[in-house]
Task: structure prediction
Amino acid sequence: MSKIASRFLTAESSVNQLLSQPSALSFGGTSEEEHRIWRKAFRRKLIKNLGPKPEPVPQEVEILEHTQMDGYVREKIIFNPDPFSSIPAYVLTPDKASRKNKHPAVLCSHGHGMGKDPLVGLKEDYQKQFAVELTRNGFITISPDWRCFGERRDRDEWVRRSGRDGCNVAYFAFGYFGYQLLQLDICDAQQCLDYLQSRADVDKKRIGCMGCSFGGTMTTYVSAVDQRIKAAVIVCYLSTLDDALGDRGRGNTCGSQFMFGLRQFGKIADVAGLIAPRSCMVQIASNDTCFIDTDAKKAFNHLEQIYSASGHPSKLELDYFEGEHEIDLVPAIKFFEEHLQ
Result:
């Protein structure tokens, strides 16, 4: 009697079977030559799978608000990155910044939630108004709303059900036009970098990126694909897809964070590995129930292997702190001061 074949009836069982297969381009070397060859191949594959970019349009920046704060100016701006989108953002500028006194800058990426407002102190949450704190320490910051969040959040009637994740719906909708939502957000981020570099008071060679949770997703991908980011702080995001898609994570992802085909050819840590040899800090919280510390440490170990092979292991830092799904503010500021100031 022949052996009965294994059966996989549900999506969950199929995914578990797929997770048992290796990723084709995940880094496994030790030498600088192996790293050089891998980096070229992995970057090429990542860029291809991110898909097409919309045609950019000339930046026409409109200043909507101008408010003098304690030691800095808060401006609200808006501009179109492409023919069908608009980006609202807050820009915080230290009073001492000028054409003759250029300052470093940080792209501040919000997490899944209320959008940009908590970053600039207009609301309170786990992100601890980190754009304000960076500006108080000498950095020009830009905090945009990513698609589906803040002022760019879609009305419930368009999503159809109030309990449905709007970024999942947007992912499907943009997909019909050939765009991946993550790629659109990356393009928006690069437009924000263009804006920063257009300012006379910004030191174009000293730009960083930071974010927590989905903000960590954006920090990882933007820093991986854009060499203008010289220092990155990835907070409570570095993890494995094995956990996100397994029984513990139970689908811990969304349309905004979805990268087409990633598990087939690599890992989240491989994407972060493209940041090397530039400076990178990874923050892992001891009591994070979203991206748990044991899984995050596995991902960090893989990232550490990549940095070691690149020949620049000292450019990678781990901040493991006692806390929940939140930002560890002081070490992050110190990191940027060391690597951008």
Summary: The radius of gyration is 20 Å.
